Amino acid sequence: MDGTLVDSLDSFVYSAEKALREFGITHIKRETLRKLIINPFDKIIKTLLPEFSSEHDRIVQRYVQIYNSEGYKLTKPKDRALEVLEQLKRQNVKIAIVTSRILLESSVVPVLQNCKLLDIVDVVVTASQVPRPKPEPFQHELAVKRLGVPKERTIAIGDSPEDIIGAKAAGLKVAAYVNGFHTKQELEVHKPDYFLERLPEILRIVLDKSW
Mind listing the GO biological process terms from this record (predicted)? Predict the structure, then answer.
């Protein structure tokens, strides 16, 4: 979801900066947060602020509160994401969203609603619904089961190594989206079946009856 269908970078950074300011922490540069924010926020705090160890839990809790109440509203659909999903639906393609958000799992539905994506998708699979999230295969396996489609006719789209590893472990074909949080060089070592520079490129792949 994050980095593939929605651009959540600004929402994460906004929530992190506001939480840190409330605790009097102003020396961490925005650019540093932008580079690190793809990692879980609790791990970022432990790495950047070891001297605030007694406040770690409170800072993380405040970050989650800020994100869930206001930060998530800064999340926007990726370029042409809505158009692509609508075209797939018109072709009777079933769509699942698989997200491994943990700290911010409760905001998944509000984010999708805010981005006008929720009504288009058939299934949403979150981390708490399986024994272990991506890169384990459980989330993708559950998505395929709930969609009621054969895995041989299912393709996963993701922008992270965890997306690719999890989908391949579940026996799915994978399209790596290279304009998300990770570069093509970071993704190609995991050998996805396809690379996407732009989301509309998935239409040709999905609607191709030969695979």
Answer: DNA repair
Q: Assess contact for 16 and 37: CB atoms under 8 A.
A: yes
Strands (E), 23-136: 76-77, 96-98, 123-125
- 3-class DSSP assignment, residue 109: helix
* Angstrom distance (rounded) from CA 24 to CA 1: 32
Output the pTM of the full model: 0.90
Q: How far apart are CA 67 and CA 143, in angstroms?
A: 26
Mode of pairing for the β-strands spanning 155-158 and 123-125: unpaired
Tokens encoding 120: 């288009």
**Cα 16 to Cα 34: distance, rounded to the nearest angstrom:** 10
CA 73 – CA 63 distance, rounded (Å): 14
Residue listed under structure tokens 């799915």: 172
Residues with Cβ < 8 Å from 50, sequence gap 6 or more? none
* Rounded average pLDDT per 10-residue block, the chain, 211 residues: 92 96 94 91 93 94 97 95 95 95 93 95 96 96 96 94 96 95 93 95 84 57
Residues 6+ positions from 63 with CB-CB distance below 8 Å = 15, 16, 19, 41, 103
How far apart CA 75 and CA 118 sit, in angstroms, is 14
C-alpha distances in Å from residue 179, one per residue of 10, 40, 124, 195, 198: 15, 20, 22, 10, 7
Q: How far apart are CA 208 and CA 37, in angstroms?
A: 36
* Assigned token pair, 129: 């619904």
